[in-house]
Amino acid sequence: MNNTLKFRVNGDDVEVAVPPMARLLDVLRETLGLTGTKEGCGEGECGACSVLVDGVLVNSCLVPVAQVQGGEVLTIEGVALHGAGAGAGAAATPPALHPIQSAFLQCGGAQCGICTPGMVMATVAFLQDSQKGTVTEESIREALSGNLCRCTGYVKIVDAVLAASQGAKP
Fold first, then answer.
1. Which of 58, 79, 100 lies at the terminal end of a domain, its last residue?
2. Are 49 and 9 found together in one domain?
3. Which CATH number does the domain housing residue 8 bear?
4. Residues spanned by the domain of 120
5. For residue 85, is pLDDT > 50?
6. 22 with 8, same domain?
7. Residues 103-155 pLDDT 10s
8. Residue 148's CATH number
9. What does the alpha-carbon distance between residue 170 and residue 156 come to, in Å, rounded to a whole number?
10. Are residues 106 and 157 in the same domain?
11. Is the same domain home to 70 and 88?
12. What is the pLDDT of residue 68?
């Protein structure tokens, strides 16, 4: 049985009629067409499906969509828009990359791209929570420990987070 749920995604109000125990991941990808959030393991182990719910980093494959009723979800699609004052559907042209996304691009922090959205989302959460001057390689590795990458040795990902931390805060 479907329930009508209302919440915000990337600054836009949405209303969906879905089973309340549907995974947030599936609602984002299949119902809302936000395919930037990736499914890796489907068990909450890899972090590829990471999104922010009310500012908290979560694995969307583990979250029943009913838990976001009335809340705010930020996905990888909304990262460039976040703080730009535009809703997810507002722009006819793609928005500029967020400084974190630019750092990943400039530092080569992505290879196949499956883990990249989750890594970027974990970085957004980490840099929002960290105090200026407290970002170290060790703190970055700890913050990203819930996100697995099977292509890299994490060096370029850590470099990207360091570079982003030295730029504008998210």
1. 79
2. yes
3. 3.10.20.30
4. 84-166
5. no
6. yes
7. 999 999 988 999 999 999 999 999 998 865 689 999 999 999 999 999 888 99
8. 1.10.150.120
9. 20
10. yes
11. no
12. 98
Residues 6+ apart with CB under 8 A from 86: 11, 95
Burial of 92 per CB tally in 10 Å (0-12, 13-18, 19+): exposed
Q: Considering the entire predicted model, what is its pTM?
A: 0.89
pLDDT of residue 152: 84
- The pLDDT score that the predictor gives to residue 130 is 80
Structure tokens belonging to residue 80: 């460039």
Same domain (yes/no): 68, 106: no
- Percent of the chain past pLDDT 90, that is, above it, reads 78
